Amino acid sequence: MPYIEFKGKQIELDEDGYIQNLDDWTPELAEYMAQQDGLTLTEQHWEVINFLRDYYQKYQIAPMIKILVKEMAKMFGPDKGNTKYLYGLFPDGPAKQACRYAGLPKPTGCV
After folding, report:
1. Residues 62-72: pLDDT tens digits?
2. Per the residue annotation, which of 22, 41, 64, 110 is the catalytic one?
């Protein structure tokens, strides 16, 4: 099982790099994972990450991109609820990359 070393602890990951134990997630770990990908998380990134964590807590599933866009548009309006905006923040795929930073499982429908 792959893992990352963070603050003296081994965090188990699945084969796609998603945290195995959701309780291992911290905002600092999200920042670290983003830095490993060459990203610095901004307030806009955190808006999406926190939205995803709330969504997961409510529905027990990580949303695929289509649902993420639709739900973001409902909550934040069309300027933030569109694929262009979300891909600008998470170029490796808004649902996939943002869910990884949010400590959630890989979204359904993502390859």
Report:
1. 998 999 999 99
2. 110
